[in-house]
Amino acid sequence: MSAAEVKNLPQNLPSGASDMAHIVLTFDNNKLASALYGQFDENLARLEQKLGVDIRSRGNQLTIKGSASAAEQARRALDNLYGILQKGADIGQSDVDGAVRMAIAADDQLTLPTLERKGKVSAAQISTRKKTIYARSLNQDAYMRALERSELVFGIGPAGTGKTFLAVAHAAMLLERGMVERIVLSRPAVEAGERLGFLPGDMKEKVDPYLRPLYDALYEMMPADKVERAIAAEVIEIAPLAFMRGRTLAHSAVILDEAQNTTPMQMKMFLTRLGENSRMIVTGDPTQIDLPQNTKSGLVEALRILDGVTGMVTVRFNEGDVVRHPLVAEIVKAYDRDGKLARGLGAES
């Protein structure tokens, strides 16, 4: 095998321990094996903590002991991480966490036809000349595959799940490969009505702070000088939602971020901008609506109205998909619990 040799999978132990397994992996590149283990074996320690297994290293050989399911999940995670290293990329803590999530969810993964051996994690990826990123959760995997296949994709879920970053990364890949002629990135300029008059500066200076997350994602996937030249040539356009009215966006990758803060009319206006040979991606979090009280969210309405429309795919993220600091996932869970409690109390009163 290109990544590792499984010497013993699994090994039955004495009565009372029949659910235990003993897996030995041998890697064919000592340098990559060292990178896989991490400094002072920190990556292995993290796998042990996440999966409840025992991992011992000896040169380019690893021994995994634990329950049969956990040991197999560790093997899948290590196989995934070693594959990333073989492609010339580096791995860090977030990659290890992502590999664990993918390994646990491997049996339910939305896989494409493949010749890979059964049980191998085949994470979706987005590649540009600057960077390759891999799915770090089952929903990220489904989202990235939906972006490849569908002309209209909704990415719904809490902050930190990668829905906006992956959308911009996919758009950058399409542009680099010549599959679209430009990228159009948009979001409501301000949360409550796009009233910009009180802000200093010209229009670009007024709206740039609201669009900064889109710039950040672009710079992550493309060299800064290319991004700046593309913006100057209007090959990449970053504009508030109000600027979309009356346009038809053909041969474009079009992204609407923070869509929960659109009105129903704004959402309809945006969706009907889709032109020939274009892809449209809409991202948002229905739990973070900042519109004035009694104003309906265009995102919530669109998800209801368009349910079942052929050609549209909706991928819903949850706190388990948060790929930022682990504390972010706990914060999302806490707010979700509080929201459910408040709704329950409201129903009783």
Summarize the structure.
The protein has 349 residues and is α/β, with parallel strands linked by helices. It is built from 11 helices and 12 strands. The strands form 3 sheets. The chain has a 6-stranded parallel beta sheet. A 4-stranded antiparallel beta sheet has the order 1-2-4-3.
Report on this structure.
Belongs to the PhoH family. It is found in: Cytoplasm. One of its GO terms (cellular component) is cytosol. GO terms for molecular function: ATP binding; hydrolase activity. Residues 133-336 form the PhoH-like protein domain. A six-stranded parallel sheet has the order 9-8-10-11-7-12. The chain has a four-stranded antiparallel sheet with strand order 1-2-4-3. The radius of gyration is 23 Å and the shape is globular. The chain has two domains: 20-111, K Homology domain, type 1 (Ribosomal Protein S8, Chain: A, domain 1, 2-Layer Sandwich), CATH 3.30.1370.10; 125-327, Rossmann fold, CATH 3.40.50.300. It is built from eleven helices and twelve strands. α2 packs parallel to α4 (93-104), α5 (138-149) runs parallel beside α6 and α6 packs across α7 (203-221). The chain is of the alpha/beta class. The protein has helices spanning 30-37, 42-51, 68-86, 93-104, 138-149, 163-176, 203-221, 224-232, 264-271, 298-305, 326-348, and strands at 4-6, 20-27, 54-58, 61-67, 125-127, 132-134, 152-156, 182-187, 236-240, 252-256, 279-284, 312-316.
Helix content: 40-55%
Number of domains: 2
Give the oligomeric state: single chain
User: Could you report the average pLDDT, rounded to the nearest whole number?
Assistant: 82
* Series of H and E elements: EEHHEEHHEEHEHEHHEEHEHEH
Strand order of the largest sheet: 9-8-10-11-7-12
The CATH class designation of the largest domain is Alpha Beta
Domain PhoH-like protein: 133-336
Pfam families: PhoH
Subcellular location: Cytoplasm
Keywords: ATP-binding, Cytoplasm, Hydrolase, Nucleotide-binding
